[in-house]
Amino acid sequence: MIHKIAVASIAIGLAIMMLSFLILGGFVNKIEQKNFSFAGHLNVLKFSMGSYYEEQPISLERDFYKDYKKYDFIEHVQSISYKFGLLKTEEGVSGALLKGVGMDFDSLRFSENIIKGSFINQNDSVYSKEILISQKMANSLHLKLGDEVVMYFIQKPPRPRKLLIKGIYNTGLEEFDEKIIIGDLALIQKLNKWKDNEVGAFEVYLNDFEKIDEAEQILLNDLDSDLNVEKITDRFVQIFDWLTLIKRQVLIFIGLILFIASFNMASILLILIMERTQMIGLLKALGASDWQIRKLFIYNGVQIIIKGMLLGDAIGLGIAFLQYQFEIIPLDYENYFMHYVPIQWNWPVVIGVNLLTILIVSAVLVIPSLIISKIQPIKSIKFD
């Protein structure tokens, strides 16, 4: 029974740790991808003393845009621009920020946010009047697919434009859902009286997000002096600080589980030693050294740990596989920004959790085994 309890405690602890890391990875990845689909990893824009969205035009003839493929860390660059306005319907008025996207926009990356309709249609001859609005905007203004809405752009004089709702998106992140509309970059060019080859900024996607700091420094050194580079982690600092806090909480949780598993194994080894006190005394009387006997109990404990880990791997990976394939466990979208518990396979993490478990718990077994050296053969043989 003691062996079964020990195996079960290791298995449950390891399964929980593994699922925690796989779910955390999936959750963080989903939230990060939502951010990246709206803002890229880096933004290249002109220095401005005014508001971030009062943009100065940048020419598409800049060397950076024409030759960005020379940077092996850049995956894609797309041109965008922003313009403030007011959406007016019979139900009310709402402030909004039109994000104009060009023909080079990666609509496939954004498509997973679209819950109704489709992405806007664009062509080279005239600007498109189609837009995408958030589900939150649609609900507050009582709008639906195919509706026309008037947007008043804030400039002198204000210029209204009648726009057609082509699609509705939803991220669950207030930074986007409360204010951003996706439209045609050519519309903003016309409103700002820009040339066809002038845009507000460039969104840069990297091959490896973990190297964002290095990429920022390289671009800052290479770009023209009037251009600035802004990281998404600085632009949406609250979101990424929140994700960092979640990671820390999970690490604390993992530490507690490892402590409990180590404490359980130490307690179980103490019980095993108590049960085998007479045997220990007999072995000592026959000439066995303390270290030989300690190795016997440590070896027995490690066997229990390995059995528990194999069972824990089967349980943890099995549950993760079922969730990954069939999305069995749902989530409240309003609170978690996704419809189901996400799983991100990360085999280095799986291997690392296993190694950490066996190293820490096995090391803890040395402590209770020290009691063996205190056991005296004469007293232990009489022990009952």
Description:
- The protein is α+β, with helices and mostly antiparallel strands.
- The protein has two domains: 2-31 and 240-382, no CATH class; 76-204, no CATH class.
- It contains 15 helices and twelve strands.
- The protein has helices spanning 2-39, 63-66, 107-110, 135-141, 174-177, 185-191, 212-222, 232-235, 237-275, 277-285, 290-326, 333-336, 347-364, 366-369, 377-382, and strands at 42-46, 58-59, 74-89, 92-101, 114-117, 130-134, 148-153, 159-169, 180-184, 198-199, 201-206, 227-231.
- Strands 1, 3, 4, 5, 6, 7, 8, 9, 11 and 12 form a ten-stranded mixed sheet that branches. It has a two-stranded antiparallel ribbon with strand order 2-10.
- A hairpin with a 2-residue loop joins strand 3 and strand 4 (92-101).
- The radius of gyration is 30 Å and the shape is elongated.
- The mean pLDDT is 92.
